[in-house]
Write a structure and sequence with these properties.
Helix 2 packs across helix 4, helix 9 runs antiparallel to helix 15 and helix 13 packs parallel to helix 15. With 433 residues, the protein is mostly helical. The chain has helices at residues 6-35, 38-59, 62-72, 76-98, 108-119, 126-133, 137-160, 165-184, 207-238, 241-256, 258-277, 281-314, 320-351, 355-374, 381-406, 415-432.
Length: 433
């Protein structure tokens, strides 16, 4: 039997690890949905969305910069030092800025713990950036997966024992710290602590230059992350804890599966960047088409099954709230597919260094999402948020496709397949209702 190549191994390990993590998150969310009251569950959901946003802000493009630098530098210790300085700068800046976000159900102590958790998440971990640069996503997946299993089981146990939100966040933070301590002892990251400095054929930029280089990438990443979490934050500002609990749970269940798509795009980013660097048009087209078609093959059936069976499966549980969650999940399915495709187009723009173009594309998406959600007319907050997210994702798709087309970088994008899949999902929703 032929063993998978490096790309296949990286996709399987990263996407597989994310899939298991998604399953753990679903189990954890289901337990908390049952055990916590509306306000407590709404606070936890708000904290998780805030952590995701703070995590991306703490990284702020440093991950992509560090992966590139680690892959070419002969002094990884210097890259690590520069990465940590940038990370500290962006973490403190984002903590001050995002303190202004609406958080009616989340206390000040919960916010501070969320900041610390975000700063130690895998996405902001320089040790894992180094592993990614060395194309050791298999080692990354193992370490992260073990940490997430321990974290999920610990939080479920604490919830069953009646612990409050702050205790759950402390458990999360502790597991992250233990994961980073374990990583520091791995032999594969030993070069990061090597004191023998050799002459670097690829000298680093100054701290200010690094901040300037990562800013457009980080701005795009944070705006995309804010876009993904805009509807929960809008409900946090205007709706009731019950609305947040129902919609937030549905959105979390749907959006968690998108981690698998992210694993595919992360695994192909280095290959695409190298093909672009060598101007290999045939390979560029093949990589872009392969990753978008792979996501379509995986997620189109998932969305179809979600539309058909979310409500019937929820009826198997004697909990009225789960039926409401399932109805919102059905409406979110087209947005889920669009979100996965949009993530692939985003990484394509980043690989072409069209970072400011990516920022420009997100702005109209956020505007459409906000307008549809806030000015919802006779629709409930939950339905309006689901419709707003889907229309926002559609706007983002059109904007990114337009920018790629304008720059003549659209080779390999299966536009017909994407639009046909979205139309089929929309028709299924209309017929099923």
């Amino acid at each position: 039997m032929k063993m998978p190549g490096r790309f296949g191994r990286n996709v399987i390990s990263n996407a597989g690890g994310n899939a298991i993590h998604g399953a753990l998150q679903i189990v954890l969310l289901f337990v908390l949905f049952q055990l916590l009251d509306d306000t407590g569950c709404a606070a936890f959901i708000t904290a998780t969305y805030l952590i995701g946003l703070l995590e991306m802000a703490s990284d702020f493009g440093g991950r992509l910069w560090a992966v590139r630098e680690f892959s070419v530098s002969t002094t990884p210790r210097s890259v690590l030092s520069q990465s940590l300085r940038c990370k500290l700068f962006y973490t403190l800046a984002s903590a001050v800025l995002f303190y202004l976000l609406p958080r009616n159900t989340l206390s000040a102590s919960g916010f501070m713990l969320s900041v610390l958790v975000a700063a130690t998440q895998p996405g902001t971990d320089p040790f894992l950036w180094f592993l990614r640069a060395k194309e050791r996503l298999d080692a990354e997946a193992v370490v992260v997966l073990i940490s997430r299993v321990v974290m999920a089981l610990s939080m479920i146990t604490a919830a069953v024992l009646g612990c409050d939100l702050e205790a759950l966040l402390v458990i999360w933070l502790t597991c992250n710290m233990l994961r980073m301590l374990t990583e520091s002892r791995l032999s594969v990251v030993r070069p990061l602590f090597d004191g023998n400095v050799t002459k670097n054929a690829h000298p680093l930029k100054t701290f200010g230059s690094t901040i300037a280089a990562t800013f457009p990438v980080g701005a795009g990443l944070v705006l995309v992350c804010l876009f993904q979490r805009a509807t929960p934050f809008l409900l946090e500002a205007f709706a009731t804890p019950r609305d947040i609990k129902i919609y937030g749970t549905a959105f979390k269940l749907v959006n968690t599966s998108g981690l698998i798509a992210t694993g595919v795009f992360v695994s192909s980013f280095a290959l695409l960047a190298k093909a672009i660097e060598s101007n290999d048009l045939k390979t560029i087209k093949a990589i872009i088409r392969r990753k978008l078609m792979l996501v379509t093959i995986v997620f189109l059936p998932v969305c179809v099954l979600g539309i058909l069976f979310s409500v019937p499966v929820s009826g198997m549980f004697a909990h009225r709230g789960l039926g409401e969650v399932a109805q919102i999940m059905v409406l979110l399915m087209p947005g889920l597919y669009l979100s996965c495709i949009n993530m692939g187009l985003k990484y394509t723009l980043n690989a072409y260094a069209l970072n400011w173009h990516d920022v420009a594309a997100v702005v109209p998406g956020i505007a459409v999402l906000t307008l549809v959600t806030v000015f919802h007319g006779s629709l409930s907050w939950q339905v309006a948020a689901a419709v707003g997210w889907g229309l926002g994702e559609a706007t983002l798709l059109v904007a990114r496709l337009g920018l790629l087309w304008q720059q003549r970088k659209h080779r390999g994008v299966p536009v017909g397949v994407i639009l046909g899949s979205v139309a089929a999902l929309m028709l299924m929703i209309v017929v099923s209702r």
